[in-house]
Amino acid sequence: MAVHCFSRSVKSAAAALFLFLSVLGLAEASADEINFPSELLTVISAGGTKHQFLVELATSDEQRSRGLMFRKHMDADAGMLFDFGVTRRVSMWMMNTEIPLDMLFIGEGGAIHRIHREAEPMSQAIIDSRGPVKYVLEINGGRAAALGIREGDRVISRQIGNDR
Q1: pLDDT at residue 32, as a whole number
Q2: What is the dihedral of CA 65, 67, 72, 77, to 10 degrees?
Q3: Which of 103, 143, 101 is CA-nearest to residue 120?
Q4: Over the stretch 66-110, which tens digit does the pLDDT of each residue have?
Q5: What phi, psi does 49 have (nearest 5°)?
């Protein structure tokens, strides 16, 4: 009888622990929702074609740390612009990011220096800028290729400061 009661207690404790950890995981993903201001941004190709995106701005450490984590969908003309405040080498990853992304690494003046295409969702692999940049624009994976966006194209944005 003691073994049976002990077994039931262990099962109850395990179930309670599982429920607690499940709720904790959900709370972590949605607690303290972070607000991201937004703006229109334009990518201009070398041939002059313009592509407009409505982007959320990640300018604080908290915003940059969260980024597009836990999102299940992003509109085709949406994205997120990360502003690092200074020009430097930048490393990104896709941990807790559920949608594939193209990462456009952008210099201080708005020129695209590197494009990492189709970053793998949930990957912890480091994605490096391969040189100094000040901004990273994340858009849906495959979108840069579909629109013909290439390295050397320019990003025009109020946040970048070249929208005059």
Answers
A1: 55
A2: -170
A3: 101
A4: 999 999 999 999 999 999 999 999 999 999 999 999 999 999 999
A5: -65, 135
Q: Bin 94: left if φ > 0, else alpha if -120 < ψ < 50, else beta.
A: alpha
Give the β-pairing of 50-58 and 38-44. Answer: antiparallel
Report residue 16's pLDDT band, with 50, 70 and 90 as the boundaries.
Answer: very low
Q: Select from 84, 101, 108 the least CA-distant residue to 157.
A: 108
What DSSP letter does each residue of 15-75 carry, written as one string?
HHHHHHHHHHHHHHHHSSPPP--EEEEEEE-TT--EEEEEEEEE-SHHHHHHTTTT-----
pLDDT per position as a tens digit, 134-147: 999 999 999 999 99
**Nearest residue to 63 (alpha-carbon basis) of 40, 38, 100:** 38
**Cβ neighbours of 44 (radius 10 Å):** 15
Whole-number Å distance between alpha carbons of 162 and 143:
23
pTM reported for the whole predicted model: 0.81
Q: How far is CA 45 from CA 21, 42, 77, 109, 164, in A?
A: 48, 10, 16, 15, 18
Helix (H, G, I), strand (E, B) or coil at 150: coil
